[in-house]
């Protein structure tokens, strides 16, 4: 078969392998410490398939470590990377294999089998023997568990399919840990089809290798298979001893799925012996394992949902902060930043509909005198009142902003069928509204304010419109204030002139 680059082939990073070895040896604290060091790192230069595989494989490790929210997060991210055509990529096959393990762990068994079959199909196309062997081990092991929980008349056919998968995997695997996993699962499928002597032979070999490698996972599986063989041979005393060892080993490695299966088989053996105390203890263990798996998942989902709630809240706060940054706190209108953010879309949209973009520039006449006569608090109240008048005289589609100090800008969002006098008409309404407003409550007997307004229409560019309206406003100031002037030549002068 064609040789592939090790990273592209889905090679597990060395530290990830070490975490798995520590888990299988029951050294959970060490596994946790090492996992913390690697969880934020992805192999340099990894393509999306390799990244997906590494993320989902780490989700498996997090799951076995009981870190369920992290497992869900890693799995979701890796699954997202898997989206699309997997073709013949070996890393994609391994990522699907790891996802199937997680689906089995949360009880989605049908999806787990389907995902395992997909991983085998992709691995076959990839032509990498080691990857195909791992995927076949996952499918065979999953089928073994499915056969055990199936009706008796269906179980033999499922065990037979598992045996074929696992036998093929054994012919391909070179890694010793993968071989132990395949051999242990293969011995269980042999027992399932009634080949008890061969099942015992392979289970004992798995047990021997597991002791040499300090692999409690393989030891748990091999003792379980030997217990099944003894149960079928009606040697219930030894079957109980072997099943008890399997349960103890699965507890040591913190594998609720194995613990649940093995404790149920131990309870069955004890029931056949009439050992009701042992049966009750085994059933309590199985119930506890099932409850642990369920509660852990529920807790993890709860934490994941809480994290999602916090993320949504943070996003809303960020949006609110962004909106606040674009809004004038005194008047509640858009500020200069808000105007600049929204102007481009509004002006281009208006021009794109064949309508005339208008900008109305409003300046309060002699506002310093208002502050001097009535005080700064009254001056602020005056600006708020003018902002309300602007809102009243403009439409919902118009953008009303406080540009700076006592200066306001109105962009007409829709000039109403391209009317030539839309901007001047709005400007005149604003001028008249301010001039005719009852200012007694706000200013008492102090001089009432008026506004001068410059209006411009033309190209959909804020700086050009503003410069043109500014020239018109300059004329309004020079010609006596409290009036509207329209700039006929938009864009001729880019820079605004000083005003009196």
Protein architecture, described:
Strands 2-3-1-4-5 form a five-stranded mixed beta sheet, sandwiched between helices. Residues 1-10 and 491-500 have low confidence and may be disordered. Helix 9 (176-192) runs antiparallel to helix 10 and helix 11 (216-232) runs parallel beside helix 13. 68% of the residues lie in helices and 6% in strands. It is mainly α and 500 residues long. It has 20 helices and five strands.
Q: List the helices and strands in order.
A: HHHHHHHHHHHHHHHEHHEEHHEHE
In terms of structural class, how would the helical and strand content be classed?
Answer: mainly alpha
Q: What is the count of DSSP helices, taking H or I runs of 4+ residues?
A: 20
Radius of gyration: 38 Å
State the major sheet.
Answer: 5 strands, mixed
What's the β-strand tally? Answer: 5
- Name the helicity range: 55-70%
**Strand fraction:** 5-15%
Unreliable stretches, pLDDT < 50, 5 or more residues?
1-10, 491-500
Shape: elongated
